[in-house]
Amino acid sequence: MSITHRGVRRSVRILGVASASAAVVLGLSGSALACTISDFKAEAKCDGNKGVIVVTDTDASATPATITVYRENAGGVEKQIGQQKVTGSAQGAQVTFSENWQPKATYRVHVTAGRVDQDLQNLLTTPALACKTDSPSPTASAPSKPTPTPTPTTSAPAESATPTPSASASSSAPAGTVGNAPTPAAGDSNLAETGAGSNTGLIAGIAGALVVVGGGAVYFGMRRRGARGNG
Q1: Considering all CA atoms of the chain, what is the largest pairwise distance in Å, rounded to the nearest integer?
Q2: How far is CA 153 from its chain centroid?
Q3: Alpha-carbon distance 204 to 139, whole Å?
Q4: Is the pLDDT of residue 63 over 60?
Q5: pTM for the full predicted model
C-alpha cells in the first residue's frame, strides 16, 4: 500500500492538533498547581495566656516558602518579629510565631515561594481584646482576701477555750458537794460514839440539880436530928 502525500499531510495535521491539546492541558494543570499569594493566610490567636500569629499555607504544589512577619509601630517604623520556612499542602501547613500582640495592632506578612515574592493582600489586624495575660493578677489577689479568714478561726479556739474553766468549775462543784456530804455523816458518827448531843446536856443538868437537892435534904435532916438530941 503506497503512502500518498495527502495521507502524510493528514497524519502530520492530526499529530499537531494532539500536541497542541496536550500542551494546553499541561499548561492549565501547571497553572492550577502553581503557588500563589492567595494560598497563604495569617491569623492572630491566643495560646493560653500568650499571643501568637499563625500563618497557614494551602499550596497544593508543595512549593517551599519563607514567611516573614513584621510589626508596624507608631510613626511607620516596622520591626521584624520572626521568619520561618514552610512547605504547603492541600490540607494546609502552619507555622506559628510567638508574639505578645496588643489589641488592634497591625502586622505585615511577606511570602517568598517560587515566583511569589510579595506581602499578603491585607495587613493583619489583631482582635480588640488581648489574651488573658492580666487575668491571673485578680485571681492572685483573690486568695489575699481569704487570708484574714484564718485569723478568726484561730481566735475561735481561744473563745472556745474560755468556757473550759466553767467546765472545770462545774466539775469542782460536784466535788465540793461530795466532800461536804460525808462531813455531817462523820459528825453524826462521832456524836453517836461519844454519847454527846442536845439531849445529853439536858439530862446532865437535871441530874446535877437532883444531886444538889438531895444533898440539901440530907443536910437539913441531919441538922434537925442534932437539934432534937440537944433538947
Answers
A1: 228
A2: 20
A3: 96
A4: yes
A5: 0.46
Q: In sequence order, what are the residues at sequence separation of 6 or more whose Cβ sits closer than 8 angstroms to the Cβ of residue 56?
A: 40, 41, 42, 43, 92, 93, 94
Grid cell locating 110? 511577606
The span from the CA of 65 to the CA of 102, in Å, is 27
Single-letter amino acid code for the residue at 140: A
d(CA 35, CA 26): 16
Q: Is 224:216 a contact under the CB 8 Å cutoff?
A: no
**Count of all residues that appear for the chain in the document:** 231
Contact (CB, 8 A) for 136 and 49: yes
Residue percentage of the chain with pLDDT more than 90: 39
Q: Confirm if 120 and 109 have CB atoms less than 8 A apart.
A: yes
Inter-axis angle of helices 182-194 and 163-180, nearest 10: 10
The pair phi, psi for residue 72, each rounded to 5°, is -90, 115
Domain boundaries of the chain, sorted by first residue: 37-125, 194-222
Q: How far apart are CA 13 and CA 8, in angstroms?
A: 9
- 37-125 homologous superfamily: Immunoglobulins (2.60.40.10)
Higher pLDDT, 168 or 115: 115
